[in-house]
Design brief:
The chain has 171 residues and is an alpha+beta fold. The chain has 5 helices and 9 strands.
């Protein structure tokens, strides 16, 4: 018996689901600099990302159950959409040589500190590599969602989507 995979079975998108979504930028665009990566796979009534983007790079349109489409040429990777997504499905990614950066929403405490070395995890929460915290943004407009940026080896860019939660009392 094969285990069913995908967002509704596992809580994170399967590789097959990720291949079908219109919000993932091309490898060529990623090499040009920071760009949003929208891993939204559920056709539900939702469009905060479209409203949040000051550059018009994300469109949901009508009906509101459409998956968000990324116009990778309009996106400058500002990250405004990251915390706007209630499904925590938007990341900003970039690669430069041997290093890559991923910015992601993080709703756990304690938060790491800039410069900390942390475990980077994949969509399932599995540790994949060590990374360094470059930035932590806690803007009032983001409500209670912090946006963390980590740097890690470029080979893990497609896998890293968060960091391992830190234990309370230990940063």
């Amino acid at each position: 018996m094969t285990e069913q995979q995908g967002i509704i079975y596992q809580g994170f998108p399967s590789k097959e689901e990720l291949l079908k979504i219109p919000g993932v930028p091309s490898k060529e665009r990623i090499k040009k600099g920071p760009v949003a990566c929208i891993e939204c796979v559920q056709e539900i009534p939702c469009n905060p990302c479209e409203e949040a983007c000051p550059y018009g790079a994300i469109s949901v349109g009508k009906p509101i159950t459409n998956l968000p489409v990324l116009d990778e040429e309009k996106c400058i990777g500002c990250g405004t959409c990251i915390a706007a997504c209630p499904g925590l499905a938007i990341f900003v990614v970039s690669v430069s040589g041997e290093k890559a950066e991923v910015s992601f929403p993080f709703e756990y405490y304690p938060l790491p500190n800039k410069g900390d070395e942390v475990w980077c995890v994949d969509r399932a929460g599995k540790q994949v590599t060590r990374g360094k915290v470059l930035r932590i943004i806690k803007s009032p407009k983001y409500d209670a969602t912090a946006v963390i940026t980590v740097e890690m080896p470029a080979e893990y860019l497609d896998d890293v989507r968060s960091i391992k939660r830190l234990e309370r009392g230990n940063k």
